[in-house]
Amino acid sequence: MTHWQEATIMHEWSIIDHPTDAELDVISDGVTRFGRAQAVGGNARPVACLVRDGSEIVAGGSGRTEFNRLFINYLWVTDALREQGIGSQILGTLESEAIARGCTDALIETLSDQTAALYGRLGYQPLAIIPNFVGPFTRHILIKQLGKHSA
């Protein structure tokens, strides 16, 4: 027996086409816990900016601050409110909070060339561009200097 076969004798392996959200969460949570254990001194703190119409969230952005950087995970505006500057305002609000937390830069990603161009107009500079990352979509990874470090 090979080492791999010995290691798998006690475990049931499966390949599934339609994992549940709970099954995917186990993997995601495991990776996050492992990474957090490695990131000594990271002090990750979630951050979000929500725009409501009554009790309904109609736009928002979220991410975390850690190691003096704002990591923006999501930025969304409902279709009816797009192209009114709300997304830019949300981004600015997240950046202001990050500065208050001591962050010196912000990192954001998108698969939209149009959105990447908007981020460029807002002071973000490309770090990496990966063509055909997902089908025809290009992955854009951008960074912006914040606060007194801004250009």
Record the strand order, biggest sheet: 1-2-3-4-6-5
- Secondary-structure element order, as H and E? HHEEEHEHEE
Q: Helicity, in percent?
A: 25-40%
Looking at the structure, what is the overall shape? globular
| Structural category | alpha+beta
Structural Rg: 19 Å
Which consecutive residue ranges, at least 5 long each, have pLDDT under 50?
Answer: none
For the biggest sheet, the summary is: 6 strands, mixed
Distance between the termini: 61 Å
Strand fraction band? Answer: 35-45%
Mean pLDDT: 90
Number of strands: 6
Structure annotation, total helices = 4
Can you give a write-up of this model?
- By secondary structure, this protein is an alpha+beta fold.
- Helix content is 32%, strand content 36%.
- Strands 1-2-3-4-6-5 form a six-stranded mixed beta sheet, covered by helices on one side.
- A hairpin with a 2-residue loop joins strand 5 (125-134) and strand 6 (137-145).
- It is globular, with a radius of gyration of 19 Å.
Which secondary structure elements does this structure contain, and how are they paired or packed?
Elements lengths: L2 H6 L12 H18 L6 E9 L2 E11 L2 E9 L8 H15 L4 E6 L2 H9 L3 E10 L2 E9 L6
Parallel strand pairs: 3-4
Antiparallel strand pairs: 1-2, 2-3, 4-6, 5-6
